[in-house]
Amino acid sequence: MMLDEWALIKPADQLELTEAELKEEITRVLTANNPHAPQNIVRWSFKERTYKPILVIDQLAVHFVMEGSLVHQDSDEGRRQMAKEGVLEETLTVDTGVGFDEEEPETSVKINKHFAELNSDIYSSASKTDKKELKITNQFNFSERASQTLNNPLRDKSCHTEPPPRSNFSATATQWEIYDAYVEELQKQEKNKEKQKAIQTKENDDKSKKIMLMETQSNDVTKVGKAAKILERMVNQNLFDDIIQDFKYFEDESDEFRGQKGTLLPLWKFHYDKSRGLSVTALCWNKKYQDLFAVGMGSYDFNKQGHGMLVFYTLKNPSFPEYIYLTTSGVLCLDIHDQHSYLVAVGFYDGCVAVYNLKQKGAEPVYKSTAKTGKHTDPVWQVHWQNDDMDNNHNFYSVSSDGRVVSWTLVKNELVFTDIIRLTLNGVISEGPEGAQQPYIACGTAFDFHKQIDYLFLVGTEEGKIHKCSKTYSSQFLETYDAHSMAVDTVKWNHYHPKVFISCSSDWTVKIWDHTINTPVFTFDLNVAVGDVSWAPYSSTVFAAVTTDGTVHVFDLSINKYEALCQQSVVAKKTKLTHLEFNPIHPIIIVGDDRGYIISLKLSPNLRKEPKVRAVQSFQTRISADLQNYILFREDKVMPDIHYSGPTKHGRKQMAH
Amino acid sequence: MAGTGEGKKEEADYKRLHSFPLIRHTDMPEEMRVETMELCVTACEKFATNNESAAKMIKESMDKKFGSSWHVVIGEGFGFEVTHEVKNLLYMFFGGSLAVCVWKCS
Predict the structure, then answer these.
(1) Which of chain A's residues have a Cβ under 8 Å away from the Cβ of B80?
(2) CATH number of the domain to which A323 belongs
(3) How far is CA A460 from CA A119, A273, A331, B103, in A?
(4) Which residues, 6 or more positions from A186, have their beta carbon under 8 angstroms from its beta carbon?
(5) Which of A385, A444, A467, A525 could covalently link to A477 via disulfide, CB atoms 3.0 to 4.6 Å apart?
(6) Which residue in chain B has the smallest CA separation from A166?
(7) Domain-located, residue A575
(8) Residue A77 lies in a domain
(9) Half-sphere exposure (CA, 13 Å, Cβ side) for A15?
(10) CATH of the domain at B27
(11) Which residues between 42 and 101 in chain B have a beta carbon less than 8 angstroms from any beta carbon of chain A?
């Protein structure tokens, strides 16, 4: 079987056998007989004297022999060795050998020395002896050791950019929606067109209005107007700083050495370029805003009549007027309402009177008289506001060369006129060819209303007469003063003394009157035509006059009744001074000339002395309500008794401030 | 007949009056809006009969000018709800009957 399977590998010397031979079973019986042992060994027997076959053949074959080193412990040699080794052998034999010795002494193990050494580890632990065995190094007795460092920990990181913001949108597109959208859009467009048209027309209107304004009142830049105005005043304040300092603080110390005389210090000079060729015909301070004054521009020359101008200056801005109004005719007179300081009454050369309202924009007056409403037929020489009438309507008076004194009342939108008096030349008999008696008309040139007695007023005429009139009698005069030989230029009541008034004329004289006496109390001949005269507001005895030679005269009757305290020429030669006005509060005067310039002058301390208190009690009775405006520092002023030959010589008090 | 004549006239008027581009909704900046609108008008006029071509032209031009990815819908009647990047949407009418929606969403 085995040969079959392994038939492929055949040793070279294998027997060649047939199938039959291979299939033959060979029975082998294993016995203890050595097949190689000879069977026919014969030995000579000496006893029988023949060769006799030996039947028992030694079957043993020895292959290896080694002599052992083990010694039985019970043997002598074993005992000797143990004795030699000492206790170890004894214990060993004791411990191990108990069972063996007793039960199987024949088979007990003899432990030799080497055996004991090899198993010393085991036995040492079991033995109770303290004897130490040397540890034998063992090349197989080792251990492996390993260590690991800490690995860096791992970490994941990631980031996202924010996606662009998104939103949703949804709609539907249909034909009808598209159509509706278009129709709506078209309607919107049409509306816009209409609006634009409207705006355009409005703009056009505005433009035309602006052009009109520009013609009259510079550019209407309303938005920056206020800021520009402030800036302009600041610039002016810096430019005219020295003048402002003079105005406020300068007092002429040389007055002490001048005795009674005084001087005038020129301050600002006002001029408006477009008023070139016009002369100053009227001046008036605003009672409420004491730095503001009005100037009327026109001409006194009959041959040079043309347009006029009404301008308002403030001391805070000397370089340009605050308000400018162009007029078609020359302005001859004006007056600012005491309470309503925005109302300005103006009289023109063509006989018209008008009222301007500073609050309202526009170049036209709010009221103007027309031919239908009783305008004067000749130049209006003076206008004056009155107290409101019983219906609380504002009203003013005017006087003109046509001989009428007219009261004008502001009713709603129109001026209502009332003739107060018609001036006639009393005592002049007409010498007409027919000899018909005709009342000749006297030409009024100036008037003034009594400060306390409401009905009483004075009218100066071109003939040189002054009539004392009453508002209630239109036909006759209460009194007529044969005052001047030429036209009366100004007539003015004293601010304090209820009986005294002053007049001036082109006949070179200034006269002071007591209205109860027909002849003048004082007459001052200034040797040149006098343009204007005015009482000082701070003293009853001080007045100033301007003359056509360009000189300002200041008098104080309580100091010198005969000569002026100051005669100072303030303009270039050939320039005529036309008007003069005292500031109601500040110690300055303004004078206007025929070239359109207005000069402000400061009075030196000598010119503004106030009289000392003389008899307050008796004096106070003479002061009426009108004085209450001035009461604080003026109640001690006294008009010296001018009826007597000499004024009382009493000490003078310097002005408190 | 008169009625139909008027109708025709109205139609003509309508076509004449409603030919302008009308932006219905947009959140684009001024410059971009004007450019996009002009592009849409050009495309719709160039491919008056082929909305697909017009849309393709618009889309490709917009991708070039303002970066991808733009989407364009042109049609006479459709509804839509889209998510778009803000400041990148234009919905307009044109020629009286076309609605164009252009938006960007990448």
Answers:
(1) 170-172
(2) 2.130.10.10
(3) 171, 34, 19, 95
(4) B17, B18
(5) A467
(6) B85
(7) yes
(8) no
(9) 5
(10) 3.30.740.10
(11) 75-86, 89, 91, 93, 96-99, 101
Q: Is B85–A182 a contact, with Cβ atoms under 8 angstroms apart? A: no
Neighboring chain A residues of B96 at a CB cutoff of 8 Å:
178-179, 182
CB B80 within 8 A of CB B3: no
Residue listed under structure tokens 């459709």: B78
Overall domain count for chain A: 1
> Rounded to a whole number, what is the distance in Å from the CA of B80 to chain A's nearest CA?
5
Contact in structure between A335 and A398 (CB atoms under 8 Å): no
A537 to A342, A344, A367, A555: CA distances (angstroms): 22, 21, 31, 13
The reply to whether residue A182 touches residue B75, judged by beta carbons under 8 angstroms, is no
| Gyration radius from chain B CA atoms | 15
Count of pairs with CB atoms under 8 A, one residue in A, one in B? 70
Are A448 and A494 in contact, with CB atoms under 8 Å apart? no
Residues of chain A contacting residue B89, judged by C-beta atoms under 8 Å apart: 169
Q: Which segment, A296-305, A504-513, A648-657, is predicted with the most confidence on average?
A: A504-513
Place of tokens 């304090």: A496
Condensed to tens digits (0 to 9), the pLDDT of residues A438-493 reads: 567 788 888 898 888 888 889 898 888 888 888 887 777 888 888 888 888 899 99
Residue in chain B closest to A179 (alpha carbons) equals: B96
Question: What's the token pair of residue A166?
Answer: 């998104």
pLDDT > 90: percent of chain A: 9
Give A180→chain B minimum CA distance, Å.
10
Q: How far is CA B4 from CA B1, B10, B12, in A?
A: 5, 10, 12
Range of the domain at B47: 2-104
Q: How far is A194 from chain B (nearest CA, A)?
A: 18
User: Residue B103: which pLDDT band, with cuts at 50, 70 and 90?
Assistant: very high
Residues in chain B closer than 8 A to A171 (CB atoms):
24-25, 79-80, 91, 101
Q: Which residues of A touch B93 (CB under 8 A)?
A: 173, 178, 181-182
The answer, as to whether pTM is greater than 0.80, is no
ipTM: 0.85
